[in-house]
């Protein structure tokens, strides 16, 4: 995704806002992450003293598996990042800020967006906050049906309680 910044930089405007739907066409990346290729991006670019900053918000969806009931579900994640827009990379090795270099009047967000998605993907998610999980005895998905087993307290909060009572 390219954002044209040269007009903004030569204008008197102090900030501008970008809202764009973005499509990731990196097949390897999509396959590796089970990502839906349609990403929502919104960003603000503003001039602060001598620098130009970008704050971006990425909203993406990927095919996930619930950590508790093991069902497939679409997991939607929102992540934010900040970057500095520069005309050339600074050599400052101390700095851990993300730099976006202007090329032909634009900055290209493809790599940073992929990186941010990769870094923000949750390891374990639930299909819903109160997912009841599966019965450890009979394997029934307790969101869909009830079972007759006595020991179907799969909520980890109950497990903690049981651990506490054991000591
Ligand atoms: Zn679940
Ligand atoms: Zn059961």
UniProtKB/TrEMBL annotation:
A Pfam family recorded for this sequence: YceD
Protein's name according to its UniProt entry: DUF177 domain-containing protein
Organism: Sedimentibacter saalensis
């Amino acid at each position: 995704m390219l954002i044209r910044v040269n007009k903004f930089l030569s204008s008197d405007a102090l900030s501008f806002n970008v809202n764009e739907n973005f499509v990731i066409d990196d097949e390897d990346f999509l396959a590796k992450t089970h990502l839906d290729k349609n990403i929502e991006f919104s960003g603000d670019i503003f001039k602060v003293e001598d620098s130009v900053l970008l704050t971006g918000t990425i909203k993406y969806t990927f095919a996930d598996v619930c950590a508790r009931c093991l069902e497939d579900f679409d997991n939607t994640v929102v992540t934010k990042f900040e970057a500095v827009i520069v005309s050339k990379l600074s050599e400052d090795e101390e700095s851990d800020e993300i730099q976006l270099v202007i090329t032909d009047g634009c900055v290209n967000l493809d790599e940073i967006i992929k990186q941010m998605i990769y870094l923000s993907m949750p390891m374990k998610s639930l299909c819903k906050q109160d997912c009841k999980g599966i019965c450890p005895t009979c394997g029934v998905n307790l969101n869909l049906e009830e079972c007759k087993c006595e020991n179907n307290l799969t909520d980890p909060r109950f497990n903690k309680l049981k651990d506490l009572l054991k000591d």
